[in-house]
Design brief:
This protein is mainly beta. The protein contains three helices and 14 strands. A twelve-stranded antiparallel beta sheet has the order 1-2-6-7-8-5-11-14-13-12-10-9. The protein has a two-stranded antiparallel sheet with strand order 3-4.
Length: about 260
């Protein structure tokens, strides 16, 4: 199995700031690359052009299946004194398979400073069972993560719960605590609406928006983050959900939204 840090180390930067990469089978989700990894590799590409300003937001469109040999192509859209915008295309043999825009912003003084994103009361990771059911198959990419179910229900359980809470961490002990690693794990939980399904149905992430609440991404030494995903609408074959992520100390790290296509 190729670990997260091994995968990053295998990236091959080119003189034009593009990067060549190969996605191993252990990071696949069905016929495409796991979306969180696609977003993380795209951000890694953007850092080829802007590596001195903290990331503030990411907007990712999953255009088509990503897999095998790919090229990551960043373009600097604008750079000012305190901000920068970079677009990134992930290109495979079939063409553009993912497209992202990353906004970077330097820390600045402001009269506004508040936090209305309290972390839910949870048990500690040491008290919780695995999210994965040994009797059910699981997507290949999930072998790269440790995930524990704190609240809500597992996928395809016919539950009425619209929200799911999970403790999550990279299993690779060498994974850095940075924004790229957070993107790589932030999309790991299945859509919250999947818990409401009574029979298996195919799903596909279409878009993912993530905003970083801090430029200090650190958590505890074990690497645990807590995620709460809530399905807010499901209609006409699509579901929209909110996504929130905190570190072990309850400090907000990321907030996001996702659009999911539901085939069934």
């Amino acid at each position: 199995m190729t670990t997260y840090t091994e995968l990053l180390a295998s990236l091959r930067p080119n003189d034009d700031h593009s990067t060549d990469a190969h996605i191993p089978d252990s990071w696949m989700q069905g016929r495409t690359t796991y979306g969180g990894l696609t977003a993380a590799l795209s951000l890694q590409g953007a850092l080829q052009l802007v590596d001195d300003i903290p990331i503030r937001s990411a907007q990712v469109a999953f255009v088509g299946p990503v897999g095998g040999d790919i090229k990551i192509r960043p373009t600097l859209l604008r750079r000012g004194k305190n901000t920068a915008f970079v677009s990134v295309d992930v290109v495979a043999e079939s063409g553009v398979t993912a497209q992202s825009i990353f906004a970077f912003g330097a820390r600045r003084e402001s009269s506004l400073h508040f936090d209305d994103m309290p972390k839910p009361n949870t048990r500690s990771p040491e008290e919780i069972e695995s999210f994965f059911d040994a009797d059910r198959p699981r997507p290949g990419f999930t072998q790269n993560f440790d995930m524990l179910i704190e609240n809500g229900a597992r996928p395809i359980s016919g539950s009425e719960e619209k929200s799911i809470g999970l403790w999550m961490r990279h299993l690779d002990p060498d994974t850095p605590q940075d924004a790229t690693a957070v993107l790589a794990i932030g999309d790991a939980p299945p859509p919250a609406a999947m818990s409401m399904l009574a029979v298996p149905s195919r799903i596909s992430s279409m878009t993912w928006m993530a905003e970083f609440m801090t430029d200090d991404i650190t958590t505890d030494a074990a690497g645990w983050y807590f995620a709460q995903h809530t399905a807010q609408l499901a209609k006409d074959g699509y579901s929209s959900q909110s996504m929130r992520l905190w570190n072990r100390d309850g400090e907000p790290i990321l907030v996001g939204r996702q659009t999911i296509a539901v085939f069934g």
